[in-house]
Write a structure and sequence with these properties.
elongated, about 80 residues
Length: about 80
């Protein structure tokens, strides 16, 4: 990797990927473009259970390949910042 790789803009990096490695950044799966986010999320109730053993909603670990900077992520997962767990 040369020094010219560092300090470039996103478009220049995309061009370098295509030129040097034949990789089109836009066609890569989201997990490689956006990384992975791991967080707790409320599990949807089913007929089998409605609450956890202590009366609180059950939670599950979720792995998503998404853009956490977008407002839509936080609207879809407001409980991430909820201090009452």
């Amino acid at each position: 990797m040369t020094d010219s790789w560092f300090g470039t803009r996103a478009q220049e990096k995309s061009e370098l990927l295509v030129q040097q490695f034949g990789i089109d950044y836009q066609t890569l799966p989201a997990m490689f473009r956006q990384g992975s986010s791991v967080f707790w999320d409320k599990e949807e109730p089913t007929e089998r259970y409605s609450d956890g053993p202590d009366g609180k909603s059950r939670k599950k670990v979720v792995v998503e390949h998404c853009n956490i900077i977008e407002q839509s992520f936080w609207e879809a997962h407001p409980n991430i910042l909820d201090e009452e767990r």
